[in-house]
């Protein structure tokens, strides 16, 4: 779980940037070139050992402090173990015992694409493959129909697939290869996290975890 040695850092960073330049389509698609407006290499500071790929580590000092992973006080009514996503605040909370929560910064859907409601984690994926939803294909017919998991995959290092009953609602909580999008409203609907953060969340929650996504302070219309 150690970070890469300094002499490997440049190699990891170069590989990440080469992959990021190769059309990072979003499952949860984004304005790529517009946001890569400064030196992308400044975002990456090493990597954490993982399989089959190491997880690129981000300089979280570049994020607004409210989007950095931390334990915070939590006064909501949800039971410990619940995931609560606040679309307006661009934050995800994993409710814990004792009136606290693990809080993460997230990127969310652009206007007209955000979903809200209640679901559960129906399955979990490690370096998952990506496929566009039917809506995405209708809007962008030239999209590839699948992409294997990897550093350039829009779902990143981990994905939590949300279900209602036995139905996959095509809404994901997943990693991203665009760390600058955390705190932004720009995806095609899914909730994106830093790869290191979604890997942390992945280890903390089992399949079946309750998920509440709120917008305007509510999870219902």
Automatic annotation (TrEMBL):
InterPro entries: LD-transpeptidase, LD_TPept_cat_dom, Transpep_catalytic_dom
Family from the record: Belongs to the YkuD family.
Source species of the chain: Methylobacterium komagatae
A matching Pfam family: YkuD
Keyword Cell wall biogenesis/degradation attached: yes
Hydrolase recorded as keyword: yes
Listed CDD domains: YkuD_like
Active site per the UniProt annotation: 174 (proton donor/acceptor), 190 (nucleophile)
UniProt domain L,D-TPase catalytic: residue ranges: 81-214
Keywords: Acyltransferase, Cell shape, Cell wall biogenesis/degradation, Glycosyltransferase, Hydrolase, Peptidoglycan synthesis, Signal, Transferase
One function term, GO molecular function aspect: acyltransferase activity
Primary enzyme class: transferase
Signal peptide span: 1-33
Pathway as given in its UniProt record: Cell wall biogenesis; peptidoglycan biosynthesis
Enzyme Commission identifier(s): 2.3.2.-
Protein name: L,D-transpeptidase
């Amino acid at each position: 779980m150690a970070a890469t040695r300094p002499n490997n850092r440049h190699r990891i960073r170069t590989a990440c940037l080469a992959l990021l330049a190769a059309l990072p389509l979003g499952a949860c698609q984004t304005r790529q070139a517009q946001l890569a407006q400064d030196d992308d290499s400044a975002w990456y500071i090493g990597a954490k050992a993982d399989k089959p790929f190491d997880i690129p580590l981000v300089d979280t000092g570049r994020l607004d402090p409210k989007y950095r992973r931390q334990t915070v006080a939590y006064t909501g009514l949800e039971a410990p173990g619940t995931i609560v996503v606040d679309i307006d605040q661009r934050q995800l909370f994993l409710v814990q015992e004792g009136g606290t929560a693990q809080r993460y910064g997230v990127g969310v859907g652009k206007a007209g694409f955000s979903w809200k409601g209640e679901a559960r984690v129906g399955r979990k994926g490690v370096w998952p493959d990506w496929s566009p939803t039917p809506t995405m294909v209708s809007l962008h017919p030239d999209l590839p129909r699948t992409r294997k998991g990897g550093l350039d995959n829009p779902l990143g290092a981990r994905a939590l697939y949300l279900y209602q009953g036995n139905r996959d609602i095509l809404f994901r909580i997943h990693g991203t290869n665009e760390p600058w999008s955390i705190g932004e409203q720009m995806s095609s609907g899914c909730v994106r996290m830093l790869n290191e953060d979604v890997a942390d969340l992945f280890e903390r929650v089992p399949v079946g975890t309750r998920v509440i996504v709120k917008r305007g302070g509510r999870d219902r219309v």
